[in-house]
Amino acid sequence: MKNDIKIGIKVGDIMTRNFISVRPDIKILNAVGLMVKNRLGNLILQEKGILKGILTERDILWALTKKKDLSEVRAMDVCTRKITTIKPSADIQDALRKMKKAKFKRLPVTINKKVIGILTEKDILRIQPELFEIAHEGYAIKDYSEKVKRLEKLKSGKEIREGICENCGRFDILFNEDDNLICNNCRDDM
User: Fold this and answer.
1) CB of 21 closer than 8 Å to CB of 99
2) CB 44 within 8 A of CB 19
3) Secondary structure element (H or E) that encloses residue 121, with its range
4) Alpha-carbon distances, residue 134 vs 44, 97, 124 (angstroms)
5) What residues are paired with 182 via a beta bridge?
6) Superfamily name with CATH number, domain 11-136
7) pLDDT tens digit string along 8-26?
8) In angstroms, rounded to a whole number, what is the distance separating the alpha carbons of residues 26 and 78?
9) For position 46, what pLDDT does the model report?
10) Which residues have a Cβ under 8 Å from the Cβ of 100 and sit 6 or more positions away?
11) pLDDT of residue 107 exceeding 80
12) I need a labelling partner for 113 at 20 to 30 A (CA). Which of 53, 57, 154, 157 fits?
């Protein structure tokens, strides 16, 4: 993306103004109930009008895997606290760039640390669908290049790993033998 390209649409023009915010000390189960009832993917956490965090679906999934009992867990205990915000006067191209850099799908829109709205990737794409490629460029390439690197690393040494045996097709622990990833049974047959 070039830094000098501007779309001409301001964040304040397309942001969601009717967002739901809660206090950071809300119990996570109550927050989940509110999210389900209102069909939301996130809640803004504010205290005295000041942004304290965002509770997302991903934060809740993390809590489910790490905490045994969620009944006493507060939203502030698991929420995203390092938040990237944007001003309503910013161009949506700048917003998209910030989202990609921070790896967030939503940005609180703030004036003087007070949240006045929230901008989501969906808001941008609803108005400017041609930005989809820009929003997601690099992801597939990055994923593919990481897979190639892992495969090269695996094939370069005798590193042991689980996967599909290249000889028999069975899922098992694999060994690198003559640049082939094979299971122990096929290895014994050699």
Assistant:
1) no
2) yes
3) helix 121-127
4) 27, 9, 11
5) 175
6) CBS-domain (3.10.580.10)
7) 789 999 998 888 999 999 9
8) 11
9) 92
10) 135, 138
11) yes
12) 57
CA distance 68 to 75: 15
Q: Which amino acid is at 75?
A: A
Give the start-to-end residue ranges of the domains of the chain. 11-136, 142-189
pTM for this entry: 0.63
The two three-digit tokens of residue 16, written as one number: 């969601």
Beta-carbon count within 10 A of 136 CB: 12
**DSSP codes of every residue in 153-166:** HHHHS---EEEE-T
C-alpha to C-alpha distances, 178 to 155, 160, 183, nearest whole angstrom: 9, 14, 13
Q: Which of 121, 189, 179 is nearest to 155 (CA)?
A: 179
- Count of beta carbons in the 10 Å neighbourhood of residue 169: 10
pLDDT tens-digit readout, 126-157? 877 766 665 555 555 555 666 666 666 555 55
